[in-house]
Amino acid sequence: MFRPLALFAAVLLTVLAASGAVAQADDPVRAAVTKLAQASADVRAVEAAAGDARGREARGDLIDRLAAARAVAADTGATLQAQMALVDAKIAEVGPTTPGIVDAPDIVTQRKLLAQRRATIDSAIKRGNLMSVEAQQLADSITAAQAAELGRNWAKRNASPLTPTFWTDLAQALPQDMARASRYAGRVMRDIGAGARGGRAWLAVLGLVVAVALAWPARLALRDAGRRYAIGSAPGHRVRRSSYAMWRVVTGTALPTLAAVMLVQGLRWSGLAGETAEPVLSIFVFAVGMGNFVGALAAALLMRSQGSWRLLPIGDRVAVALLPWAWVLAVLTAIDILLPAVNELLHVGGALDAAVNAGLAAIRLAVIGGILLTLGRLRAHADEAADAAAAQAPATDSPASVGAGRAWVGGVTLVAWLVTLAGTAALLIGYTNFSLFLTRIAIEWLAIVVATFYLLLVFVDDVVTTVFAAGSRTGQLLARGIGIRASAIDQFGVLLSGALRLGLAIVAVVMLLTPFGSDVGSTFDRFATVANGITIGDVSISPWAIIRAAIVLCVGLALARLFMRWLNERYLPTTELDLSARNSFAMVARYLTIILAVLWGLASLGIGMERIALLLSALSVGIGFGLQAITQNFVSGLILLAERPVKIGDLVRIGADEGDVKRISVRSTEIELGDHSTLIVPNSELITKSVLNKTLNNPLGRVQVQFSVPLNLDPSRVQAIVLDAFAAEPTVLDDPEPKAFVDSIVDGRILFNCFAHTAGPRAAYGARSAVLLAVLQRFAEEGIDVGTVPQPLQLLPAAAPGEGRDVKA
Fold this sequence. Notes:
- It contains 22 helices and 10 strands.
- The chain is elongated.
- The chain folds into 6 domains: about 10-155, no CATH class; about 165-390 and about 410-465, no CATH class; about 470-530, no CATH class; about 535-625, Helix Hairpins, CATH 1.10.287; about 640-695, SH3 type barrels, CATH 2.30.30; about 700-780, Alpha-Beta Plaits (2-Layer Sandwich).
- Helix content is about 70%, strand content about 5%.
- The strands form 3 sheets. Strands 6-5-4-3-7 form a 5-stranded antiparallel beta sheet. A 3-stranded antiparallel beta sheet has the order 8-10-9.
- Helix 21 (about 715-730) crosses helix 22 (about 765-780).
């Protein structure tokens, strides 16, 4: 009887638990609070473990956990903010309590529940912000502890190699360390013997054969194949060089690393490598990869036997002399990775560890000194050759450029010598760790990072500017498909290359700071903090928001351009508007669409219309004073486009200049003069000053001819000659008909003032010239003296001193 009841109770509890889990999953606030509680517990655990953490890896794991907690806080904060907005909207819809009015019970209950939910969300947001701040402070303290430990490690002083104590301690510790190494080697040999008895030793031999094939013939074959492809198929000379250099680095690193992997896997599959040798094998693969990366990088940059493919601006002698030293550094890099791991595995004593570090530091100092001496000898030979060439022929380079190049090379060499001398002094005094740090980090790591990112910078710039070029396939596709100008494609390629190279430079700085106690993850977390956004008032501005706004603005401008093309090519030609009206309508529509695109971009950035209005009101005073002339011309341009006192195609006179209106914008108007030059007139000049528009209302042109004839001639005869000349000219209109008037009689001559009209003012000048030629020809045939009214000239005697004189005009 009780078993069915127990079964029913179990089912009921299961259903209730499942419904609770579903409710928690459906409620984003409860899920966010749960995530915050878990992240807070993780922060407390990291805080408890921070004091006992030793080493970069342990502290790095703690910093990663803190970064994950901050990410949870950021995600839940965004979710809670969205839920807060929803709750505020519901509270506003319910409304506050009104004195004297009793609300319904369900409204009161709803208002209470909403207030409780809002308080819960607000408390969770505050807890999340506090937890994020605590996690950041804890991460900073862990990073500071790492830097402090690194400083203590540098300041640790051992016995100097020049003192007997150093060698006495080494001699005393060496038997114990050799015994540990012997026991470890014995365990490795027992594992090898056990594996050999398993009958799978041939797998190790096969792995060795495959490793040799990958490391030598396969690597050379792939390198030559990449060179043939670069010569025959790669576009452009620059991208060929950088792509081939990158290919040499990839093949020179990947294939030897893969060869090491195959060798180690062969030992594992054959059973020859047991658990004893497993840590060494893993470190061995990494050491081989890093060593070959350094060597391949140096070979790709120096190009000893292929000077035309060399990216560095150095000669063949320098490349040939530096390449052996580069491979020595590559071997030292591999040893420097493998040897400390072996020492840690064998638990060697402090004396032997200090001796190993001193030996590594001494070898590195010797190598660096050898490189500097080689460079010095090469520079001396180069200077002697340059002096001899300068004595025989005039120099082609300016002394300033040559001096600048020698200055920075000499400065870098001087710094390297100072670091080398400081490392040598530290080693001799007994600061072995500091000496090893200077040689390993300050010189070798710096050289590797700089060389790597130099190659990446050149490669990225060559590839991007080649792909996004006006003459490339991508550029032609963009130009034909979207209609982008060739210059815009080139500009986009340069801008994209600059942005990518800036990102690489930031990564390079992070990598350079890594050995100084700055963890890569923490450094990128700081960049991520900036990337999450900077809050200014109610607006959160982040790089991603700026990129999104830029994309939205580009899309808006593209849509505006498509709309203007449709308006100019499809819609406006179907209307009855003239060319000037179409231009005015299109100009206003263009600026409206641009304004809408800008507002759309600002809205995607999180800036609303009310903030834009507030910003404009705050800047109105500055705009009024600083942009007074531009604003005046802008408003005048809008008046010109609206009232149209001057239209495109009008013949206007401004002062002494006369020409045709060719273009009207919101700032200025372009007028083509008679000599085909362009007069750019600010729009305020056309609005505030007098402008003669010869084609505004009446497009007719007027021809005016003035002359005088003697008084004894028949005026009707002269009038007939003039009217006949007007009638013979084809450009002169019959309506209005030409007129010839007797203007006045002055000093025995009859003054004539004659008028006619042409179809336009531009034809008036030519018509006037033709009529004058015809009239003068007729007057000459008939012996009529034509001229102007004579001006009398009267000479007056000089006035006596003190006497005045009346002057009549």
